[in-house]
Write a structure and sequence with these properties.
7 helices, nine-stranded mixed sheet, alpha/beta, Rossmann fold
Length: 253
């Protein structure tokens, strides 16, 4: 099980994966388009477009680094809008997934809190929702999202959630965007139904950052329990959430 495209264990470069070194902070970005059933089967990844920005030592830098990442993520989102033929004036539902009561899993809630909406605007087209987890509500997230999409005639959905990584140094430092949707709970092996274009009838863009790692990745003798780290994860989740929300708002302005 992997969440980040570059942790699939496959030779992605032979399938069109390209890495670009950025001009500041030692960051890099990469992209991959899985546009055939053959590619999808060979890589064990859903068809769609993938973008990842790797920002090692992000939290050693100040606001300048955050602004730099916001700009890069906003540009990537604009490219995804173009590929999906999304008009920013269409109705969008921004969904913060995860468990807001667990620091490593509350990225979606932090982004939700940082998204600015104007519900009194006559032609408001930006809506946001934070569904919590199935064990708190008894309702599967996909059913709630699907209900809003249908009832409010939502054109596209932006999903945000914490991911898992196999490398502790990547906790909080890799920002991934895809057009393939998300499966609530997949990062902790609690699989719900996948939220994507096919399942809810609306275009989907998913954004995630790894804030969890399996203990077995650190110690081969350990079980697959989730290790919640690092110790300052609260501050890191807040910063990553601010970055993602700012990038989204930059595109929707």
């Amino acid at each position: 099980m992997f969440d980040l495209i570059d942790e699939s264990g496959k030779d992605l470069k032979s399938y069109g994966y390209r890495v670009k070194r950025l001009d500041k902070f030692g960051f890099s970005q990469a992209s991959l388009s899985i546009d055939t059933d053959g590619k999808s089967k060979a890589l064990s990844m859903d068809k769609g477009d993938y973008f990842i920005l790797n920002a090692p030592r992000l939290y050693d830098y100040g606001m300048e680094a955050s602004i730099f990442i916001i700009d890069k993520l906003a540009k990537a989102l604009k490219n995804f809008f173009k590929k999906l033929a999304i008009n920013k004036c269409e109705k969008v539902l921004i969904v913060g997934l995860g468990n807001p009561d667990i620091l490593s899993d509350k990225l979606g809630k932090v982004v939700f809190d940082n998204i600015e909406i104007n519900p009194l605007k006559k032609k408001n087209n930006v809506f946001k929702f934070c569904p919590n987890i199935y064990f708190s509500t008894g309702i599967e997230t996909i059913d709630m999202v699907g209900m809003f999409v249908k009832g409010m005639e939502i054109d596209y959905v932006i999903l945000i959630d914490s991911l898992t990584t196999s490398n502790i140094e990547r906790l909080g430092t890799s920002f991934q965007i895809t057009t393939t949707g998300m499966t609530p709970g997949s990062g902790v092996n609690r699989f719900g139904r996948r939220i994507n274009n096919k399942s809810i009838g609306a275009k989907c863009i998913s954004i995630g950052v790894p804030f969890m790692i399996f203990a077995s990745q650190l110690n081969s003798q350990a079980t697959n329990d989730i290790l919640l780290a690092p110790k300052d994860i609260g501050e890191n989740v807040e910063r990553a959430g601010f970055i993602i929300a700012s990038a989204i708002m930059e595109v929707l302005r």
